[in-house]
Design brief:
- The chain is α/β, with parallel strands linked by helices.
- It has a domain of 157 residues: Glutaredoxin, CATH 3.40.30.
- Helices cover 37% and strands 15% of the residues.
- The strands form 3 sheets. The chain has a 5-stranded mixed beta sheet, with helices on both faces. The protein has a two-stranded antiparallel ribbon with strand order 1-2.
- A hairpin with a 5-residue loop joins β8 and β9.
- α4 packs parallel to α6.
Amino acid sequence: MATIKRKKVSGKATQGQKKNGLLHNKIFWIVSSIALVLIIAASITIPLVISNMQTTEEKVDYVGKEYSYKEEKVTFTKMSYEGVLMHSNSNDYDEGTYIKHIFFAAFDFSSFYPDKSIDDGKSKDDSSVTFYYNEDQDLALQALVEIQYHINKYNEDIKNDADTSNDNDIAVLYLIDLSKGNNNKVITSGSFGGSSDSTNSFSFGYIAGEDGFKKSYEYDYDSKNDPKSWDIFFTDFRQLRTDSRHVIEFITGTPKHDPFQLELA
């Protein structure tokens, strides 16, 4: 009877076959592909999420927010350097763009941090933090909210009174971002009370329409019967907060002068 001999296969001979079997394994390739996709997705998504979180934190639009004063909603109007010039041009009166009373506040919106809460969790010793709460800016913001409130009330009054001849004598407050376009010209333009060599980073003032920029207004007479005046042009945040009451009296009027009256009779 014939004897069948089985040939013994060595481990060396089958070692390569096992490897080739793994490379041809469909499950292996599916799992590997999924893992690769997840890694690529994570490498793209995580930096974007971190970037968006940082951008949201660094670019809070305090100028665009809604505020409240005496239970009334207050919002600001953003404007450009060229836009203010256009609205102060009486030749455009028939176009509906001319405005008789223009206040402006110009500063860099991107470095405006008037909110105490932005300091939460920050260390003053952390050199990577580039911005912190600014008290002077906070106080100036409070002043701007009050001024905008009184402008709103003034406009409501002239619209609702019996005299229709003054309905177009409205007032506005424009906020100008010095970091955008040509807006930095506000600081050096005489039309805004600036000078060619000025290095100020803040400016608040008043433009009496076609009569142009005005630095002050008269409010009373002294013992020699000479008029006394208050400035309504400021070049730093703290000064605006300190003297904003004079701006408000200029808008509302007093027993001795009418609203927006520059000179005493």
